[in-house]
Amino acid sequence: MTSQVRGVQLARLLGQWHALPGRRRSPDYVALAAAVRGLLADGRLPLAVRLPAERELAEALRISRTTVTAAYRELRESGHLASRRGAGSWTMLPGTHRVASTGLWTPLDDRDMIDLGVAALSAPPQLVPAARAAAEDLPRYLGGAGYHPTGIIELREAVAQGYTERGLPTSPEQIMVTSGTQHALDLVLRLALSPGGPVLVESPTYPNALAALAARRARITTHGLSDTGWDADLLLGSLRQTRPKLAYVIPEFHNPTGHLMAADLRERLVGTAHAAGTDLVVDESFVDLPLDGTPLPPPVAVFDRHSRVISIGGMSKPYWGGLRIGWVRASAPQVQRLAAARVGVDMASPVLDQLVAVHLLAQAPTIVAARRTQLAAQRDALVDALTERLPDWRVTVPRGGVTLWAELDGPISSALARAAEEVGVRLAPGPRFGLDGTLERFLRLPFTLPAAELVEAVGRLAAVRYDLDRAGRPQWREPSVIA
Fold first, then answer.
1. How far is CA 175 from CA 281, 331, 406, in A?
2. Separation CA 446–CA 379 (nearest Å)
């Protein structure tokens, strides 16, 4: 059955649609169509959703039906709406656009776009030699079927060695190789969470984790992070009160805030989770990327005595997102159950990709050290540009990871993202990192692009921010429209 958004719901999502920024005043129907496209752009209005009838939306917005009719026509012409007489109108994307990894629609020809929606680095120079070496290793696997549900032994040994070097003794039997960290999370949810089960997550948190939980129809509760990170009393109190089946946390250079969880809280978190009957899913995607010599606390699983902690990680952030290699670290019996669950999904990860990963991990000290130097320089360039061009924005400089979490000077994140798209900057606005459209005062800014591009992007954002202020002046408003 096709989902439908009612008129009052769409009106609430649109908010002050008539006050959207622009260099010159647009007709109301153009502004309304642009606002709907903006909702699609920041992910707050899904695809393939039936919009309300023209009369219903007109009544909800207290405008003429003619305006809504013209706006719907504008959306059909731009390829964002499909209509059939007597059946309604559905949201869609233009044929010349694709869905980016941020969830935003993006033109196919967007080479001039500065994409700050993706928090990932380009490939390291060692990747091509590693791929050549992997191809030379491949023949010894060609005599078999090629299915390794838990991963090839060389890669599992390398990942296990990494955990052992961090102070968490691990055997290859405790490692399962997956097709990326997101795949690892999906498999863990299939094993550990029944449909509709209760889950506790941070707020803000990783958007794709929320998508995975939504696919399981999880009942999600949140605990908020402050400027300094986790509030121990709130976090542990939430576990005791809600007693969720599962809690998802990002303790190392949290995405998007960049916070690092202290060792004492990690220990208390594991103890409280055990008492509450909660399994902890610990996302370690950024654990390889401390900056400025920041020491890392022990892995959360160090404090686990009851197989309550399942760690997930991968190679997307320190190495390359195009290398779809992730893993799960759990007890050996849990790994076997995950492998059994995996057979119904994708059987196994590609052998060649795993061999590439083995060669890259063998060079980890060199590759990761270069990544840290690169990221520290790009972070500092981004912070300096923000300080100079947008001094009213508040930023806590992270000690690792790849993202800044900026507190803006107003609840403008989605409007800023829509306006920035027009000047060639793609953003992931704050509401994408929460559940209910909140976090409009925040914006995630990754520092994974070259410094010159980051400085240019901030300059464009500063100009757009100025335009938002100009658009908010009384002479630019339409006083007769009530949203």
1. 15, 8, 36
2. 8
Cα separation, 212 vs 162, whole angstroms: 27
Rounded to two decimals, the pTM is 0.77
Residue 481 pLDDT = 29
CA distances for 28 relative to 65, 72, 353, 419, 469, angstroms: 12, 12, 52, 17, 20
SS3 label, residue 10: helix
Q: Tokens at residue 471, please?
A: 């658009």
The mean pLDDT value for 59-69 works out to: 94
Cβ(47)–Cβ(91) under 8 Å? yes
Residue 292 to residues 80, 222, 226, 253, 366, Cα–Cα distance (Å): 46, 31, 22, 13, 16
Q: What is the 3-state secondary structure (H, E, C) of 305-349?
A: CCCCEEEEEECCCCCCCCCCCEEEECCHHHHHHHHHHHCCCCCCC
Q: Which helix (H) or strand (E) holds 417?
A: helix 413-422
Chain centre distance of CA 393 = 22
Mean pLDDT of 233-237: 91
Furthest CA-CA distance within the chain? 75
Percent of the chain with pLDDT over 70: 90
SS3 category, 196: coil
Q: What is the DSSP string of 363-387?
A: THHHHHHHHHHHHHHHHHHHHHHHH
The 10s digit of each residue's pLDDT in 292-303 is: 999 999 999 999
Torsion angle, alpha carbons of 297, 174, 121, 436, to 10:
-80
